[in-house]
Write a sequence for this structure.
């Protein structure tokens, strides 16, 4: 059958409508076991992460069989199928209880029989042989039982696994050198891999250390050996040069003079400060060249090299050839063979932490043959692996019976989220800020990466850094703002976040992605913008007037400091005609404005009484209507899927957050029912009567104008 062809299902499914799409209703164990027949296109999600969700992590790890950090459809189906094969009463998968009745395990199947036997063994070891059920606590406390057993089937042995002091000591030594692994009992131990690695490295090091060349080079003191070899390489070219010069002198007697220092070189040095001529002195021969080819180690050494020759004598010559006063060319060649042998041997050295035990202890490993005994203990432990793995299967079955239905209602469908039966597994907790509570909070690890995709959700998001315990614990959440307004939400605003365990965190907004929040916000947004624009203009005018007044005062102060004998300019006489034109223009402008206002008001009052509210509503619709309509379209496009996709989910549908449901995710502050509210405020701003008088005067002026224009009859 083609993959895109829906599977014919004999199971009768139930669906409910939420989030703008049909979701499967999972209520019974049969629903879970029939999930393989449900068309994958009807699943709400196809993958969810193991980390970053509010769900039992151990259960998710058991379902995640490939250990890739994600739960996918085949893994969830395999978990349901395995649990169904182990149970005779499949309705237990819908129970959600952390216990398992032994009578509900199907002993006729291979899986069920293995789990049933393991459950009885575990209860017997815990002293509950007569119990008719096994709980998750019984299984999770099995470390106490493992601690009482020498072997537990995990392939790791501890010192307690050994039956002799010798083997106990070797297990401790191996852990000290090679590290350890954690046994099921919770104690540190070693595995076959660790033992074989220790044995191989120890044998290799002993073979290197017992090399015949080591007997020669070990005559060099271990302390300072590397420094001595470095000194050797520094002096070797100079000593070779000396003996080669002596060979030339033996070859031709005329070379004795030429191979030694020339008169010109010594004359040039004699004219200089020799304390500053070290490099030039070092270029001279190591010692006086003779036909005997013998280097006197006590006297006659070039002053630039005498100190290094003394060090070479004490660190290499004396350990290798004994105490000598001079060095012949034959002795020098023997020394070169010794050092070459050492360097060849040292280049093959084996680096291993096993050397920390020392040579004698490692020889005991190779002679006493404890490796065979330790590996035999590991084999005995591994022989019990099936029995103890069955105990893990008991834990798996109990956890599946408790958690599979909850996981399916947050994976196959988003029932827990849309039905309001509690928080979904992707909801991390509740944020309290700005007099509101926000329930759609999602834990994120990378704000920048999450925001790239989450911005397409059309949801107003506030990213908050949360800390507790003085900053020791940190987390970041993405908070969906779905009701109210955003007037007081800004970066740096603080609040308190309560996680699913009830722990409180200090939360601070670090980033905001703006989108429409609610219809109420969209309705009042134009008026707030108009008020803000007017307020900004008034502030600008007031600031400009203030600057002008300050500049004028400064100018007057500067003019007042001028000389008093300066003639004052004659003031120009008041021009009545000039200012009459200005007053006339102002009067015309005010008259035109008053006429416009009067015509609008008069036209409004001429309308029948039932049309006046319609006009007011029309004006309001003209101002707020476009904003509300645009916000309505955007709010209907809010998508939960993009928020989860940005967090590692693979959401398979358009999980919308419509206006009513979005409003339920953000709680506004309200007084509790039956609360008594006192309206008297001792710090309330005192009301000033001038505003009332101005309002009354405006009404009187308007009425007079209407009467004068014969719009209002006076009787």
């Amino acid at each position: 059958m083609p993959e895109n062809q829906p599977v014919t299902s004999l199971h009768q499914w139930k669906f409910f409508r939420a989030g703008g799409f049909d979701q499967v209703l999972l209520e019974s164990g049969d629903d879970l076991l029939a999930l393989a027949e449900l068309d994958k296109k009807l699943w709400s999600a196809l993958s969810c992460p193991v980390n970053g969700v509010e769900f039992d992590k151990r259960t998710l790890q058991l379902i995640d069989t490939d250990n890739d950090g994600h739960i996918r459809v085949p893994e969830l189906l395999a978990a349901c199928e395995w649990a169904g094969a182990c149970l005779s009463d499949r309705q237990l998968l819908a129970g959600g209880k952390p216990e398992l009745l032994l009578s509900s395990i199907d002993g006729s199947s291979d899986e069920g029989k293995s789990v049933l036997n393991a459950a009885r063994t575990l209860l017997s070891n815990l002293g509950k042989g007569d119990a008719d059920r096994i709980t998750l606590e019984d299984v999770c406390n099995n470390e106490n039982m493992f601690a009482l057993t020498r072997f537990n089937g995990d392939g790791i042995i501890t010192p307690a696994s050994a039956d002799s002091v010798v083997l106990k000591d070797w297990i401790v030594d191996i852990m000290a050198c090679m590290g350890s692994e954690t046994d099921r009992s919770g104690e540190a131990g070693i595995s076959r891999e660790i033992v074989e690695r220790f044995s191989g490295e120890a044998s290799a090091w002993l073979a290197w250390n017992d090399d015949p060349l080591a007997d020669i080079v070990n005559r060099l003191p271990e302390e300072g050996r590397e420094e001595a070899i470095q000194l050797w390489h520094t002096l070797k070219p100079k000593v070779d040069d000396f003996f080669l010069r002596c060979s030339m002198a033996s070859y031709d007697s005329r070379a004795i003079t030429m191979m030694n220092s020339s008169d010109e070189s010594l004359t040039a040095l004699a004219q200089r400060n020799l304390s500053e001529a070290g490099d030039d002195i070092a270029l001279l021969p190591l010692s006086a060249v003779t036909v005997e080819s013998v280097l006197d180690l006590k006297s006659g050494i070039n002053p630039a090299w005498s100190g290094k020759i003394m060090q070479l004598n004490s660190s290499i010559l004396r350990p290798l050839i004994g105490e000598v006063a001079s060095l012949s060319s034959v002795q020098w060649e023997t020394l070169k063979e010794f050092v070459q042998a050492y360097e060849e041997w040292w280049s093959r050295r084996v680096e291993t932490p096993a050397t920390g035990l020392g040579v004698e202890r490692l020889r005991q490993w190779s002679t006493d043959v404890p490796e065979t005994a330790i590996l035999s203990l590991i084999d005995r432990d591994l022989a019990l692996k099936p029995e103890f793995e069955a105990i893990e299967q008991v834990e798996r079955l109990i956890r599946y019976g408790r958690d599979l239905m909850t996981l399916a209602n947050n994976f196959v469908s988003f029932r827990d989220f849309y039905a309001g039966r509690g928080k979904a597994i992707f909801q991390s907790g509740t944020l309290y800020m700005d007099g509101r509570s926000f329930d759609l909070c999602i834990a994120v690890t990378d704000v920048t990466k999450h925001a790239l995709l989450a911005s397409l959700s059309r949801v107003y998001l506030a990213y908050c850094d949360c800390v507790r315990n003085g900053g020791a614990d940190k987390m970041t959440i993405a908070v969906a703002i779905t009701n109210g307004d955003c007037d007081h939400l800004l970066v740096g605003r603080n609040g308190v976040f309560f996680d699913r365990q009830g722990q409180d965190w200090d939360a601070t907004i670090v980033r905001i992605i703006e989108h429409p929040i609610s219809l109420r916000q969209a309705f009042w947004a134009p008026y707030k913008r108009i008020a803000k624009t007017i307020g900004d203009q008034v502030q600008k005018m007031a600031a400009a007037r203030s600057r002008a007044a300050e500049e004028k005062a400064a100018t007057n102060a500067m003019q007042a400091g001028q000389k008093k004998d300066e003639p004052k300019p004659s003031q120009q006489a008041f021009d009545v005609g000039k200012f009459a034109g200005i007053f006339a223009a102002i009067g015309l402008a005010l008259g035109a404005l008053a006429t416009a206002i009067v015509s609008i008001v008069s036209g409004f009052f001429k309308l029948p009484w039932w049309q006046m509210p319609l006009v007011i509503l029309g004006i309001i619709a003209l101002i707020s209507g476009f904003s509300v309509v645009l916000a309505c379209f955007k709010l209907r496009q809010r998508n939960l899927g993009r928020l989860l996709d940005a967090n590692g989910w693979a959401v398979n549908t358009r999980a919308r957050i419509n206006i009513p449901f979005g409003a339920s995710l953000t709680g506004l502050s309200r007084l509790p029912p039956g609360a008594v509210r006192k309206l008297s405020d001792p710090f309330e701003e005192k009301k000033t009567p001038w505003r009332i008088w101005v309002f009354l005067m405006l009404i009187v002026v308007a009425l007079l104008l209407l009467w004068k224009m014969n719009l209002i009859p006076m009787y």
In short: Residues 228 and 315 are 6 Å apart (CA to CA). The first strand starts at residue 15 and ends at 18. The radius of gyration is 47 Å.
